Amino acid sequence: MKSRVKQLCLASGVLLTGFWSEAVIAETLAPRLVLQITVDQLRADLLYRNREQFGEGGFRYLLENGTVYSDAHHRHANTETIVGHATLATGTDPAVHGMVANLWFDRKTGRPYYNVQDADYPLLSQGGVDQSSEIDPTQRAATTDGRSPNAILSSTIADEISIGIAGGPKVFGVSVKDRGAISMAGHSGKAFWFSKSEGRFITSSYYMDQYPDWVSAWNDKGLTGSYADGAWELSGEKTSYRFGDADDMEWETDFPGFGRAFPHPYGAGDGKYYTTLLTLSPAGDELTADFAKALIDAEQIGTDDVTDYLSVSFSSTDYVGHIFGPSSLETEDNLRRLDRTLAGFLQYIDETIGLARTLVVLSADHGAAEVPGYLTSLGIPASYFNFEDVDKRPAIEAMKAEFGIAEELVENFSQPYVYLNQAVLDEKGLDKATVSRRLADELQKMPGIAYAISSEDLRSGNVARTAVSEAVLANFHPDRSGDIYIVFEPHWFVGEFDGLTVAATHGSPWSYDTHVPIIFAGPGIVSQRIARRVETVDVAATIAAYLKIKPPSGSRGQVLTEALP
Fold this sequence. Notes:
Blueprint: H1 2-19, H2 22-27, E1 33-39, H3 44-49, H4 59-65, E2 67-73, H5 81-90, H6 94-97, E3 103-106, E4 111-114, E5 124-125, E6 128-129, H7 157-164, E7 171-175, H8 178-185, E8 190-195, E9 200-202, H9 213-220, E10 231-232, E11 264-265, H10 274-279, H11 283-298, E12 308-314, H12 316-324, H13 329-352, E13 358-363, H14 372-377, E14 383-384, H15 394-402, E15 410-414, E16 417-420, H16 422-428, H17 432-444, E17 449-454, H18 455-460, H19 467-474, E18 484-488, E19 492-493, E20 496-497, E21 500-501, H20 511-514, E22 515-521, E23 528-530, E24 534-535, H21 538-547
Parallel strand pairs: 1-12, 1-13, 2-23, 2-24, 7-8, 7-12, 14-19
Antiparallel strand pairs: 2-22, 3-4, 5-6, 8-9, 10-11, 13-22, 15-16, 16-18, 17-18, 20-21
Helix pairs in contact: 5-8, 11-13, 12-13
């Protein structure tokens, strides 16, 4: 009987083999490419809100062919760009990977520290290392034009691919934003990003001493300049948009020369803000995708059976959201155009590498808050918070008088952290723990502030164990976090981004900022929607499990077993 069963099994195996398709065979092989796509400020609901406007091959391809986690969240409190990107890359919290904010105050130097700045690795000029390259005007807080991933304290999934995959995998990260490219490329890969000051994609001496010929050729072909004297036009009829009758709203940011209504002109190619305006529109993502295609071709990504890694971070959704808000005609049209850009990019992947041999992972670094003006028009309370005058408010002045302080008590506010003036505390012989706890109490009484939590209480565990305090703890790093963590009330925030006054922003532990998509698509992955709550720290652990390599050094995530073949 056993012999008969064996014969039947063998016969069935031969029969089934004859019906295997090329795609099924591909599922049994390691992917040639891990393509990690991060859409900056893509709040999860925006995918579903705009789904009917998407064409074939872009977001719809992933939604219909992938394992979609519809209730995915960041679990850290400060939902900013570098924090979210680093979390997706490392599979751990900012308390471990160290990227606690886009900008934190360096107590040793007494100056702000931009997350990926590194004076030891200057930007490359077109001919090589240039110690005096102009700093990108939208990153004016950086104190050096050097860039590297050295401040990231955990290995990334890109690093683990470099370590765990035999044969020398190629590892790259591309984005308009330096922090979007560098964090995902990790310590072992190479990163390229768009310099607004130079109008080209650049890198730093951390990665290479001079540009490959293909980078110079891409920069010289003039795609950046091709938008000159043009404009961002609506891609469809206004009546086809949910917010078609909401153009030119008073709460939107009127960026110089760009305006609040369609069409949004780019102006002359040599204009002061020309390259910045490209990033405030779908053009930024189009440039990113085109550069990534050139990278794939020149670096021969995915051309053999060694699994390569490419991260592409699309940034325009974030810039458009800041200027116009997530519920705006501009955001709606930008997502339509990004869908087309993504469809074209995935088609290129299919033609050159094969989607049947590509693991695609899509998520976002954070969500977005609605513009207060839009919410109040619906009767929902919302407002901006001005932190600049906090030190002068009567309650704080009275508290300072009690401690005998006449000077500024707050030395720096780098959202979400308050840093006390240590020199004043030392001069007065005051205990920082006492002063910070008292100041936190006063701040928490102010309208618009939900919580003000002192770092001393975080260190000692003297905080109530709530969802918010857990998120703040996940964000706490003793050397980089400030003396007090500020959590604003829902729909309250400081309307500032990269030195600009903006309509909307992000950075809170509230669901509109934490809720992001997580989608896995590729060989062996089932088309399904999973409604249980998962976290972004799970992404790196799941990629590692899929590739059968170890997770990043600080990994704290759980493997999402539904996304495994």
